[in-house]
């Protein structure tokens, strides 16, 4: 049997219940949008940015336009992210590492390169969402580089329609944002009569473009924090077509350089991510993997199957072989697995050793503290 799409055991982000709220958006023809109030199964914590130096700023940036350094202390960890100041990835970085200095990068690959070049200490990447699954290609970037997952953070993505101060909704002729944001808000934009949609590299970049060029006939889709950062008006909020819109971010770090024979203590409430590659027999390998974990009572929180040979013209998955000469190896069949527990746990070691016997390649992507909270920017 061939698998062309992701197979997930469960959706950890799904809300158990929800209520609805109707909001008047003051648009022509009295357009109303419904958005569901969040009632998640786990604690929803607020993403805040500590400020202990007294400097006037929003999200660590001393002025609205441009990519200036933050007021973070000189020894604060530097976290690279894709996008302009005010991007969702930057808020995720500030949530994961409070007080960090953020390093804006043009692409996700540039964020990883910044860590490898010593220009940043860590990089943060979005890897999956409740609306897109794992359509993001950042797992591929993770596999191609020798960085490890050190932390995870789940961010509620709340989209707003932003415009220059004083601009009325009836004056808008187009909307700009990241392609995924435009897709996530398609029905709402149609209701608002905004049919001209132009993609840009990221949501905060759209806001920056709006502000720097003083576009009076254009709106941008971004976060409420971006509106504060750039001094724009929020014309409508809760634009996302699906009210429960959560993105999972992974914080990537270089491997520890310590040479101690004693392994480091596992994090509290540990979770381990790994990738398993094989040449064929997808169903057989899948059943063997499930058996290796189930017989040892190890719970899986993620299971995704990539079968590139089942999709026409789909390239194989490239994985950096960190055990060998650091070369990239191509595999047509790959399994991504997250399981509860530390890789140093004897049961986990037994399961990994068993899987290594029937698979071609196994790589541990990281062991880190599981974080079930969903952080809201509002």
Main sheet summary: 7 strands, mixed
Helices and strands, in order, run as: EEEEHEHEHEEEHHEHEHEEEHEEEEHEE
Could you say which overall geometry the principal axes of the C-alpha atoms support? elongated
Strand order of the largest sheet: 3-20-7-13-6-4-5
Question: What can you see in these coordinates?
Answer:
With 378 residues, the protein is α/β, with parallel strands linked by helices. It contains nine helices and 20 strands. The chain folds into two domains: 78-156 and 247-375, Periplasmic binding protein-like II (D-Maltodextrin-Binding Protein, domain 2, 3-Layer(aba) Sandwich), CATH 3.40.190; 160-244, D-Maltodextrin-Binding Protein, domain 2. The chain has a seven-stranded mixed sheet, with helices on both faces. The chain has a five-stranded mixed sheet with strand order 10-9-11-8-12. It is elongated. The chain starts with 18 loop residues before the first strand and ends with a strand. The relative contact order is 0.18.
Q: What's the structural blueprint in terms of helices and strands?
A:
Blueprint: E1 19-24, E2 32-37, E3 44-46, E4 78-82, H1 88-96, E5 101-105, H2 108-116, E6 122-129, H3 138-144, E7 147-156, E8 160-163, E9 174-177, H4 179-184, H5 186-191, E10 197-199, H6 203-212, E11 218-222, H7 224-230, E12 233-237, E13 246-254, E14 270-278, H8 282-294, E15 300-307, E16 317-320, E17 328-331, E18 333-340, H9 346-358, E19 361-369, E20 374-376
Parallel strand pairs: 3-20, 4-5, 4-6, 7-20, 9-10, 9-11
Antiparallel strand pairs: 1-2, 6-13, 7-13, 8-11, 8-12, 14-18, 14-19, 15-18, 16-17
Helix pairs in contact: 8-9
GO cellular component, one term: chloroplast
Protein name: (wild Malaysian banana) hypothetical protein
Pfam family, one: PDT
């Amino acid at each position: 049997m061939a698998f062309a799409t992701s197979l997930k055991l469960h959706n950890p982000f799904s809300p158990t219940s929800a209520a609805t709220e109707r909001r008047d958006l003051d648009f022509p023809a009295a357009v109303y949008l419904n958005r569901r109030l969040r009632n998640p199964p786990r604690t929803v914590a607020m993403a805040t940015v500590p400020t202990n130096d007294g400097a006037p700023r929003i999200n660590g940036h001393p002025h609205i336009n441009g990519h200036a350094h933050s007021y973070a202390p000189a020894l604060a960890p530097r976290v690279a992210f894709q996008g302009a100041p005010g991007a969702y990835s930057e808020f995720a970085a500030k949530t994961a590492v409070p007080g960090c200095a953020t390093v804006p990068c043009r692409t996700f690959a540039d964020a990883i390169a910044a860590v490898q070049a010593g220009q940043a200490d860590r990089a943060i990447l979005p890897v999956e969402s409740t609306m897109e699954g794992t359509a993001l290609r950042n797992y591929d970037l993770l596999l191609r580089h020798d960085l490890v997952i050190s932390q995870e953070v789940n961010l509620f993505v709340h989209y707003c329609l932003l415009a220059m101060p004083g601009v009325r909704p009836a004056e808008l002729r187009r909307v700009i944002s990241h392609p995924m944001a435009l897709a996530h808000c398609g029905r709402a934009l149609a209701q608002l009569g905004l049919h001209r949609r132009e993609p840009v590299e990221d949501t905060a970049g759209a806001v920056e473009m709006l502000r720097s060029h003083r576009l009076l006939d254009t709106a941008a889709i971004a976060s409420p924090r971006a509106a504060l950062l750039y001094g724009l008006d929020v014309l409508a909020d809760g634009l996302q077509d699906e009210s429960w819109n959560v993105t999972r971010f992974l914080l990537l770090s270089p491997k520890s350089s310590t040479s101690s024979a004693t392994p480091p203590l596992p994090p509290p409430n540990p979770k381990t991510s790994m990738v398993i590659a094989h040449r064929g027999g997808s169903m057989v390998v899948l059943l063997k993997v499930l058996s290796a974990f189930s017989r040892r009572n190890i719970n899986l929180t993620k299971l995704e199957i990539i079968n590139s040979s089942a999709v026409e013209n789909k390239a194989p998955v490239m994985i950096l072989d960190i055990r060998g000469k650091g070369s990239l190896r191509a595999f047509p069949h790959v399994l991504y697995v997250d399981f509860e527990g530390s890789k140093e746990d004897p049961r986990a070691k037994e399961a990994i050793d068993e899987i290594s016997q029937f698979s071609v390649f196994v790589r541990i992507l990281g062991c880190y503290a599981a974080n079930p909270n969903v952080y809201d920017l509002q």
